[in-house]
Here is the input.
Amino acid sequence: MKKLIVFDLDGTLAESKSSLDAEMAGLLDSLLRIVKVSVISGGNWSQFEKQVLAKLTHDERLKNLFLLPTCGTRFYKYDGGWKILYSEDFTDEEKKKIFSALRQATGSSDLKAEKTWGELIEDRGSQITFSGLGQQAPLEEKEKWDPDFSKRKEAKARLDKLIPEFSVRLGGATSIDVTKQGIDKGYGIRKLRDILGIAILEMLFIGDAVFPGGNDYPAKEAGAPSIEVKDPHETKRVVEAIVACLEVT
Here is the structure.
């Protein structure tokens, strides 16, 4: 029986940078009643508060919830309030190098959008994220910009040569995430193992980018049994099945 269910956020639990809808929030409330749950996402802590926590029931069940923003480079647990256990932040020099590489790697015409919404590159402390249409782009525009990841795969190939000492992953609808080498969702999975004392094989990871180069793939590489979903609608059906199975056992 699985002891920990681990989710990606954008594209898995909710549409990109959108809040959980009422059905998903209800399903997670049900899941938290019977098993430990974690969310690992490229989003920062403020996104977790807005997208996830604002929609969940605030009671003792939150002690079963563990949140790892910025691809596992930070770890929060609930103990009467949300406490941060670690944060793998960049130095100023590292940030400068990553910003320069991102500008160089994403400056080609195929990645330049005619219209953007907000900053293209965001410093999240322990992660630096490029968003092809800007941080505030509407979902309908984001979904049609790079649906097959082809634009970002080319940029990732350039970045792997420019900054080989860092980890570069693709995620969300338009994002490229850069973290310290070896610090990704696989790192988050291992931290969950070490902090919670749960074997990786006793976890189940669910995400929409569980493919080589995708920012969910390191969770699978770390050994976590994984389910790849197309969208939040498919995730709901998976969660329903998990709840039904766990309630029986």
Observations:
- The chain has a mean pLDDT of 93.
- Residues 71 and 184 are 5 Å apart (CA to CA).
- DSSP finds nine helices and eleven strands in the chain.
